[in-house]
From TrEMBL:
Protein name: ABC transporter permease
InterPro entries: ABC3_permease_C, Macrolide_Exporter_MacB
Keyword GTP-binding: no
Species this protein is from: Streptomyces thinghirensis
Pfam families: FtsX (PF02687)
Keywords: Cell membrane, Membrane, Transmembrane, Transmembrane helix
Length: 381
């Protein structure tokens, strides 16, 4: 029984055959580039959409299954809301929007929206800290606050806790991305209450979420918690996030375009198949000679498959390169806020896998036919 050849010489022979037939190899690669490129573009678009659509939605509205109840800010409601937040089994935070508190920029005089918070806010709305450290929720001599990128560009911020009071200097402890393009500041509630307290025009927002819970269950539990602690809300708990709906829409679009890309890739597979069958007759004597010199049927099949897979990988590499160039060129123009240097590695991996699979499928039939060529072919030559 003849032994199989080691993979090294077989792949070396496949590479040599590709190099000697560079023109035909280029045509085979070209038939694959468009198909693999479509797959790469879909993966890149999916990753970019997650940054452009899903991430801002989480920052502004909260992660999946985020619910909110609101109430007027009174001492009783503040205490009740704090109890709801502390006893909540998942992530919960308390936001207070107080129209009487003013933060303004000294240079421009522009007023900035103030958001007072306590609890696990960043577990619900995962603000990335770009510079500095997120302020601790405890009283300090100088108010420490976080600002978004729009507010950080203003500079010279001062806070006026109550109408007519003397503006106080603040310490900007962090610059965060909160998904908003308008200037906003985030200040710990204890720091604000120690200077202003709760005003009549302020509104409390209890935001809460649960992992692995159905939406109806989370809503019911939040309503029950508010009733149990005597929080007189402005209505039933409302879902404030749209992450699941956006993700479902993006997944549907991704699946649709992947199907189109798969059809395009199938054309490339057929191209490799046609070229493989055309070259089979030209190389029949070579394969028969290899068989007569000791190569097995499996050796011949592996040789043909290795060539087609290398062609597939070459086409996939070219497609990934074109996809990278398009990403670097188009993203700064059409997707504001996405870093053009962050080309998704997953797109390259998927593209290479698609190219290798296409080469394997396109070379399967020629490999099978080559392995079945009779040794007598070389005797008739």
């Amino acid at each position: 029984m003849r032994q199989l050849q080691s993979p090294g010489p077989l792949f070396g022979s496949a590479l040599q055959s590709i190099r000697t037939k560079s023109g035909r190899t280029a045509l085979s690669c070209l038939s694959l580039v468009l198909g693999v490129l479509s797959i790469v573009i879909v993966e890149v678009a999916s990753s970019t959409a997650a940054q452009v659509v899903l991430q801002p939605a989480e920052l502004q509205q909260g992660r999946s299954n985020t619910w909110e109840v609101s109430a007027p800010a009174t001492p009783q409601s503040m205490q009740a809301a704090s109890s709801v937040m502390r006893q909540w089994p998942g992530d919960a935070a308390l936001l207070v929007t107080d129209q009487s508190v003013v933060v303004h920029a000294s240079a421009t005089g522009q007023h900035i929206q103030v958001n007072a918070y306590t609890g696990s806010l960043r577990a619900i709305r995962p603000f990335p800290v770009l510079h500095g450290k997120w302020p601790a929720d405890r009283p300090t001599l100088t108010p420490a606050l976080a600002v978004n990128q729009a507010a950080s560009a203003l500079g010279g911020l001062r806070i006026q806790p109550t109408p007519g009071s003397q503006p106080l200097p603040v310490h900007v402890s962090a610059v965060v991305d909160d998904g908003s393009s308008t200037p906003q500041v985030w200040i710990p509630l204890q720091q604000l209450r120690s200077r202003a307290g709760a005003e009549a025009e302020a509104t409390i927002h209890v935001i809460a979420r649960l992992d692995g819970e159905h939406a109806a269950s989370t809503q019911s539990r939040l309503n029950s918690a508010a009733d149990a602690f005597g929080l007189k809300t402005n209505g039933e708990a409302q879902r404030v996030d749209t992450v699941d709906d956006l993700a479902a829409t993006l997944d549907t679009m991704r699946t649709t375009f992947l199907i189109v890309g798969g059809v395009t890739l199938l054309v490339g597979v057929i191209g490799i198949l046609n070229i493989g069958l055309a070259t089979l007759s030209e190389r029949s004597e070579e394969f028969a000679l290899r068989r007569s010199l000791g190569a097995t049927r499996v050796d011949v099949a592996v040789l043909v498959l290795a060539e087609s897979m290398m062609i597939g990988l070459l086409g996939a590499t070219a497609a990934s390169g074109v996809g990278w160039a398009l990403y670097k060129t188009a993203v700064p123009i059409f997707a504001d806020g996405v870093e053009p240097d962050a080309f998704p590695l997953q797109a390259c991996i998927v593209g290479l896998a698609a190219g290798a699979s296409a080469g394997l499928l396109g070379g399967a039939i020629p490999a099978l036919r080559a392995s079945r060529l009779p040794i007598a072919v070389v005797m008739r030559a």
